Task: inverse folding
């Protein structure tokens, strides 16, 4: 066992306890993470940038503060990393795109300000699908990221680097963004816990926009308890984000309980039919039994409009993206083509050369959906479907505390398996897009492993609840994890056959 | 053939808020390039707009002043197009749910009073400014990005250039009265697009063309006339008028094609997901209505009734709030409001436009508004009284006025000090007449022979004898009597 592994296997909660007791320093933790990155990330490629020096300097400052009893927050000294679509002043923010490979941000995102104000050293920026578009991290302009559970498989996406970095023990907690499942699906693929808060919980200011009405920042960590700890730091109303929602309660602290007595969990029939892999289905049914054994009441519910969700999602997210990404035009910052005869050609070639295939596909799709003559058939219809879906969810959530579904229809697939078939890739988002369309909070909780083609791979279940229910969801997940995942925090590659780094 | 022109105007007005519409940068005009900028108005990745409520307040105020239906709820939409002065590649505007609809204003023209409909008023953000420079190529100043605008769209109700200009002047008058904009066309805070078509009265409207960004009343007037003539010439020679955007060239006085409709952008308007719906409560609306001062039309009526001004004079003096305010102050202090009106419209306005022309010639920004008139209304009233009472004659009055522009001197004291009072002492005046007649016997002879026009020349000489200070009526009477006695 390598020196860093003990520290890197610890949960955020355990690290906080160790910092408080004096058993560990922030410098020791940060150095362990850097060692872990140095040892593993050549193979995994979760990080696009590592800030060794500044992270260690911040860690040293944190240790000073702790010595004088002036810590800035409970997580003061716990290192964190960010998906590379959140801005950190003075550093490059690429969105994993050639378009922004040299873009240095002149300002901090609100979440960046908050984690800095909490005294958390920033370890670096994490790999992702370009502009957060994708479900496998294969759309990164800077190379794929691998799944620490099986190196020939994808970590999921678009926050692939985030989930992989946490799963491989390179950082105890990291922030991702979720537009249609981009936190939850990679969390599920990598066996870690991922949270997509209700829309408006975490400020989007300084998050490079993909689908503005759908995007939310959220954490990935080893346990629900860990995600709750960082939610307390990053959440809250922000005057710089007009969609920030001051009515969402800011208290996310786990309410510890040994039982789920009194909790009602609904399972929509529409989510357990065609397209769901039998092994994932079996894992989710088993999780339902486990929840029931803790006292929860499991009921069957119906959300018929789920059948429109995927189409509505791809129309709306692409429409918004086509407008959001228009600013990357080669004029003021970002990639500019070398040779051009006129303004039109400057625009065309800069965008053609600067964006990757999937991004261009979505811009085309979104531009079409908003075009005059087609807007009624596509954009407006999708909005109607979204309203319908929201309505049905709210109705179902009157009779239950949480909705249980799979996070993804399959476990982590192999690199290259779906790259030629965008439709099949899109189908994988069926269970996650609903939370974004409705704006409701949802999370991915590891609920077991299945064997697939010789690899033992994690499966995640999705818990979704009413707008103000994230604390409840986190508490249900915590109770579940403490009963059925006593090993949370142990590095996954030590659990699985063969290990990640071969 | 009798072609009638049909005109609709789209007027862009920059609102005079402290800060920009979606960020807290200052919205002032004329700052050093790219000094009033931030991630939001520069459209940097990750930046988000937050609406400045002051803009809503001003837009609603404009709506009420222009007799619009002001909505309790409105929403922002994105207008998507690529241009280097538009950093986000979309403009935040209001397309589907504008704040104000269905208003009107009335104008006075040579044909009398006319009501012109206003279709809608919506809020939007201004774009940046491209500066073309031979040495550096094209440079971008983003200070103007995000300055709040309202766009006022008229109905196609105007039938002449005169009406269009009167409409624009009235827009400017009303908006400056309510204090939401300074409406300075030379600084771009009031800009105008003209939509124009021609038809035979009774027939449906023709195909219209649009002329964009006209930046003075004069170019609006000239562009309308030029485009009207062009469309007539086209139709009468069997050509078609096509729907397009045209540019008006001030130098040639002609319009030329910029962009055909088939090449026009599809703006792909959709609701901006970054901005929630904006709302105005009844209480807020009532508070805004209560802030609206007496508007130009009402003042014009009052000037005609209370002061006996002509409709034309009253319209002129209410064209800008500062002028009306100034006039009212001076009129209250003076014996004759009509004399104040005459002074303002005559000598004072002449000096103001001469100064503006001079500044333009030297490439300086003209001083506008009340600062351009450095004379206290009380002093102008005093000068008016001196003239009305005949204590100074009109040519001396001009001299005193010029000095008042220079130093805002008290006119009576100045006249005293420089002994400029009119000479109306008959003894002095008769002496002058006698002397002039004695020195110009040849002219007196001509007069005797019936060439009465020499009387004017003799009058001039007599006036000169008094160093221009004579009461002209009295002097003229004495001269005339003297000449008649000689005949």
Result:
């Amino acid at each position: 066992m390598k020196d860093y592994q003990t520290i890197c296997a610890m949960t955020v909660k355990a690290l906080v306890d160790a910092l408080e007791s004096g058993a560990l320093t922030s410098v020791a933790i940060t150095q362990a993470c850097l060692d872990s990155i140095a040892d593993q990330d050549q193979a995994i490629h979760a990080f696009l940038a590592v800030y060794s020096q500044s992270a260690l300097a911040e860690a040293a400052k944190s240790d000073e503060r702790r010595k004088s009893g002036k810590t800035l927050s409970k997580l003061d000294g716990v290192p964190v990393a960010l998906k590379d679509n959140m801005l950190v002043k003075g550093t490059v923010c690429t969105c994993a795109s050639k378009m922004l490979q040299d873009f240095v941000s002149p300002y901090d995102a609100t979440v960046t300000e908050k984690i800095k104000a909490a005294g958390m050293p920033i370890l670096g920026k994490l790999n992702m699908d370009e502009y957060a578009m994708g479900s496998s991290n294969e759309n990164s302009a800077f190379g794929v990221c691998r799944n620490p559970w099986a190196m020939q498989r994808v970590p999921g996406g678009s926050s692939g680097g985030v989930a992989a970095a946490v799963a491989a023990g390179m950082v105890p907690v990291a922030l991702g963004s979720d537009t249609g499942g981009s936190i939850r699906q990679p969390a599920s693929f990598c066996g870690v816990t991922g949270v997509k808060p209700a829309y408006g919980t975490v400020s989007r200011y300084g998050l490079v926009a993909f689908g503005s009405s759908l995007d939310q920042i959220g954490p990935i960590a080893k346990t629900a308890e860990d995600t709750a700890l960082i939610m307390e730091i990053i959440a809250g109303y922000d005057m710089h984000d007009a969609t920030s929602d001051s009515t969402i309660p800011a208290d996310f602290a786990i309410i510890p309980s040994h039982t789920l007595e009194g909790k009602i969990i609904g399972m929509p029939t529409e989510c357990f039919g065609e397209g769901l892999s039998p092994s994932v289905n079996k894992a989710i049914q088993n999780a339902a039994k486990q929840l029931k054994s803790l006292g929860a009441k499991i009921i069957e519910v119906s959300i018929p409009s789920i059948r429109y969700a995927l189409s509505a999602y791809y129309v709306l997210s692409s429409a918004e993206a086509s407008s959001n990404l228009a600013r990357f035009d080669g004029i003021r910052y970002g990639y500019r083509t070398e040779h051009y005869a006129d303004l039109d050609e400057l625009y065309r070639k800069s965008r053609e050369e600067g964006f990757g295939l999937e991004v261009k596909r979505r811009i085309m799709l979104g531009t079409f959906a908003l075009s005059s003559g087609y807007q009624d058939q596509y954009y407006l219809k999708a909005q109607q479907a979204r309203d319908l879906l929201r309505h049905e969810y709210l109705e179902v959530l009157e009779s239950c505390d949480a909705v249980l579904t799979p996070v993804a229809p399959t476990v982590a697939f192999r690199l290259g398996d779906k790259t030629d078939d965008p439709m099949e890739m899109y189908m994988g988002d069926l269970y996650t897009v609903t939370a974004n369309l409705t704006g409701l909070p949802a999370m991915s909780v590891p609920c077991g492993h299945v064997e697939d083609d010789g690899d033992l791979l994690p499966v995640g279940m999705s818990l979704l609840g009413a707008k103000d229910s994230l604390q409840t969801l986190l508490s249900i997940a915590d109770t579940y994890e403490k009963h059925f995942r006593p090993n949370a925090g142990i590095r996954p590659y030590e659990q699985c056959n063969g290990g990640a780094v071969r | 053939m009798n072609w009638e022109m049909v005109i609709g105007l789209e007027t862009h007005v920059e609102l005079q808020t402290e800060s920009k519409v979606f960020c807290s940068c200052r919205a002032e005009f004329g700052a050093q390039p790219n000094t009033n900028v931030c991630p939001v108005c520069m459209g940097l990745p990750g930046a988000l707009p937050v609406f400045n409520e002051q803009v809503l307040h001003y837009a609603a105020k404009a709506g009420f002043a222009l007799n619009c239906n002001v909505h309790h709820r409105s929403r922002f939409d994105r207008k998507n197009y690529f241009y280097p002065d538009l950093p986000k590649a979309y403009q935040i505007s209001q397309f589907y749910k504008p704040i104000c609809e269905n208003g009107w204003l009335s104008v006075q023209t040579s044909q009398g009073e006319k009501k012109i409909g206003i279709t809608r008023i919506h809020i939007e953000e201004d774009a940046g400014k491209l500066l073309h420079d031979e040495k550096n190529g094209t440079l971008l100043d983003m200070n103007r990005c995000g300055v709040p605008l309202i766009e006022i769209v008229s109905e196609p109700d105007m039938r002449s250039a005169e009406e269009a200009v009167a409409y624009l002047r009235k827009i400017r008058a009303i908006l400056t009265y309510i204090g939401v904009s300074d409406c300075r066309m030379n600084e771009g805070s009031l800009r105008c697009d003209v939509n124009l078509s021609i038809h035979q009265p009774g027939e449906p409207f023709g195909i219209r063309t649009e002329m964009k960004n006209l930046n003075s009343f004069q170019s609006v007037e000239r562009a309308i006339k030029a485009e009207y003539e062009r469309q007539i010439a086209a139709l009468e020679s069997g050509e078609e008028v096509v729907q397009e955007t045209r540019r008006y060239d001030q130098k040639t006085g002609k319009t030329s094609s910029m962009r055909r409709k088939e090449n026009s952008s599809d703006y792909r308007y959709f609701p901006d997901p970054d901005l929630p719906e904006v709302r105005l409560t009844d209480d807020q609306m009532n508070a805004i209505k209560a802030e609206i001062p007496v508007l130009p039309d009402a003042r014009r009526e009052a000037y005609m009734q209370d002061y006996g001004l002509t409709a034309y004079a009253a319209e002129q003096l209410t064209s800008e709030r500062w002028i009306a305010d100034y006039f009212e102050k001076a009129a209250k202090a003076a014996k004759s409001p009509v004399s104040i009106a005459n002074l303002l419209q005559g000598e004072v306005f002449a000096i103001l436009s001469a100064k503006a022309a001079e500044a333009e010639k030297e490439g300086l920004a003209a001083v506008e508004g009340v600062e351009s008139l450095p004379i206290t209304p009380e002093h102008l009233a005093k000068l008016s009284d001196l003239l009305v009472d005949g204590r100074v004659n009109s040519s001396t009055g001009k001299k005193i006025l010029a000095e008042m522009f220079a130093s805002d001197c008290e006119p009576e004291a100045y006249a005293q000090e420089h002994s400029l009072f009119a000479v109306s002492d008959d003894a002095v005046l008769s002496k002058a007449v006698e002397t002039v007649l004695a020195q110009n016997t040849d002219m007196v002879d001509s007069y005797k022979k019936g060439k009465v026009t020499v009387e004017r020349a003799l009058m001039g000489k007599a006036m000169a004898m008094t160093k221009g200070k004579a009461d002209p009526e009295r002097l003229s009477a004495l001269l005339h009597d003297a000449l008649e006695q000689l005949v």
